[in-house]
Amino acid sequence: MSTSILYHAFGLKGIHYESTHFLGDCIYINARMTDQYVRCPECRNRKASFKGQKRRLLRMSPIGRKRCFLDLLLHRLKCLRCGHLWWPTLPFMDGKHRYVRSFALTALDLLKFGTIRSVAEYLAVGWDLVKQIHKERLSLLYRSVPLHKVKYLGIDEFSIRKGHEYMTIFVNIEDGRILHAVEGRSKEKIQPFIEKLSKKAKKLTAIAMDMSGSYYSAVRGWLPHVDIVFDRYHVSALMNQAIDEIRRGQQRELDNLGQKALKGNRFLLLRNYDSLEPDRKARLDALLKANHPLFIAHSMKEQLRLFWDEDFDSAKSFLEVWIKDAMQSGIGPLAKVAKTLAGYKTGLLNYFKYSITSAVVEGTNNKIKTLKRQAYGFRDMVYFKLRLYHLHTQRYSLTG
Ligand SMILES: [Zn+2]
């Protein structure tokens, strides 16, 4: 070991190497500070005398398979011009942290390949230390979000706890990055970011979202020039809800008659007909034959899927016919879907203008699920959000 290795390999400047000790699994490197980086914080004078000393033990990156510590002799300084007394901070020190900067960088490098827990285990430190290093790094990286180039956004939500706590995320559709996350899904919660978009995202032309009224009205209010796109995933979710509702209504009637015909058939009704295996198709056909409202709703659902294969002109008349048929079906939940779609016709047809969906958002949801499984995510919401902003860099299996 030498002063020059400490500098080149570990970025330790302003110290002089003295000796090395081995104790158990650890290597201790003794060094003392030099006057190379001395500068009075009061008068900027570079001349000072040493007044008192202390030892500080700072963690370094491992050497081979051994844990490694810098045992540093630090001098208190007295300015020769103004007499100011101070404990110096050397260039490799990270505030009051008990590790050198290059240790933090090693942890961050390892986090590209492993989870917080595995990195902590490898470095033989607590996971909270690795988390704190990561959090500080991410806070710096995502201090401000560049919005000026964003053209297409997706807004989506996911539940953060079982029950009714939600988080809304804004995703740049072109690169899948989560630009913003906020707890809640009400207009009030998302409004601050929408306002920010109205000031900074000058290239924003379209936003894909679900048909919940709060997103819609916030975007309409602040971004009147931006087109809203309702995508197929949310439309099919809406339709599936209606089918479910009809099925449950039918089931209640059958229960009263002592029949069990619909139990266990839910997934048959919700799956795309074409993707069902032949025997399941047959089962579904028999079921639909016996239940007229379900038959109607199911064929309307299958028909609605074809909407997305149309082009702009035919899509418009297709939608009008579908809405009319659904309204006239006499089936309550179906008519409700028709009413919703009628209210959002422009947004539905905008799909054919931009061909954007929140599909990227949905893909991101899988990564979020993995992240959510880590309990620490929810103890620290600030960190959890930072991890969301960082998700686009992380491979799926390593989000933990
Ligand atoms: Zn001074």
Sum up the structure in keywords.
400 residues, Nucleotidyltransferase, domain 5, 4 domains, five-stranded mixed sheet, 17 helices, 48% helix, binds zinc ion
Question: How would you describe this structure to a colleague?
Answer:
The chain is 48% helix and 20% strand. The protein is an alpha/beta fold and 400 residues long. A hairpin with a 4-residue loop joins strand 7 (165-172) and strand 8 (177-183). Helix 2 (101-111) packs across helix 4, helix 5 (187-200) runs parallel beside helix 6 (213-222) and helix 9 crosses helix 10 (292-306).
In short:
By secondary structure, this protein is α/β, with parallel strands linked by helices. The protein is built from 17 helices and ten strands.
What compounds are bound to the protein?
A: zinc ion
Helix content range of the residues, please?
40-55%
Average predicted local confidence, pLDDT:
88
**CATH superfamily of the largest domain, called what?**
Ribonuclease H-like superfamily/Ribonuclease H
Main pleated-sheet profile: 5 strands, mixed
Write the layout of secondary structure elements.
Elements: H1 3-10, E1 15-23, E2 26-33, E3 48-63, E4 66-79, E5 85-86, H2 101-111, H3 116-123, H4 127-141, E6 152-161, E7 165-172, E8 177-183, H5 187-200, E9 206-209, H6 213-222, E10 227-230, H7 232-256, H8 266-270, H9 278-290, H10 292-306, H11 312-328, H12 332-343, H13 345-349, H14 351-354, H15 359-372, H16 376-379, H17 381-390
Parallel strand pairs: 2-4, 6-9, 9-10
Antiparallel strand pairs: 1-2, 3-4, 4-5, 6-7, 7-8
Helix pairs in contact: 2-4, 3-4, 5-6, 7-10, 7-12, 9-10, 11-12
Zinc ion is lined by residues 40, 42-43, 45, 79, 81-82, 84.
